[in-house]
Amino acid sequence: MRSGTSSVTYTSYAFFAILQSGDPSAEEAPVVTVFAVCAVVGVLVLIASLVLGDFEIGGVEVGSSDAGLPWLSAPALAAAVGVFGVVGWPLSSGTSLPMPVIIGVAAGSGVAAYALLMVVLRAMRRAQTGTVAGLRAAVGTIGELSMEIPAGGWGQVRYLDSDSVRAVTTAILVDPDADARAGEQVLIVDVEGDRLVVQPLRTQD
């Protein structure tokens, strides 16, 4: 136990000694390891968060619009950690730059990556929200099929959006066993994902 504690103490002392002296030496190995771990873990967590979605902490989905923390996102945090490691790792192991400079460059790159990804993610969320809201605004209106809908399949419907602009989007029928021909008038009754659910007016009788 004493040996483990001494090792941690020595590593911490070496890390801060490097920061203060700026003198590259063999004692930089622990710092290089930190960069390497950040690079690997950051990239893996970024991939996982993009595939699985934002993480939940205490029942709150971090990064979602309902989390109350719009500036916090698991993919952006993972990107920041990963970029910090990816930039710092080669600089610390392959250059003679002072360690404080390397850490500063790596940290700045991580912050920049976080900010950039947050801008991209928030723009994507706004676009998705706007699309869903636009589709929901069409519910209750009449559209015209621009592409037939076969039984159990999908087609396309032409309708006027909330800005009175003619739009075309994917549509499915209320009754999956029915079909509808192109040119038929349909009532838009619901939204399912990014598709409109429609019912031919001829079935309203």
Automatic annotation (TrEMBL):
Record key words, sorted: Membrane, Transmembrane, Transmembrane helix
Classification via InterPro entries: NA-bd_OB-fold, NfeD2_TM
Residue ranges of the TM segments: 31-55, 67-89, 101-121
Superkingdom field: Bacteria
Keyword set includes Ligase: no
The keyword Transmembrane helix is annotated on this UniProt entry: yes
Domain Membrane protein NfeD2 N-terminal transmembrane: 30-128
Protein name: Membrane protein NfeD2 N-terminal transmembrane domain-containing protein
Organism encoding this protein: Tsukamurella sputi
Taxon lineage: Bacteria, Bacillati, Actinomycetota, Actinomycetes, Mycobacteriales
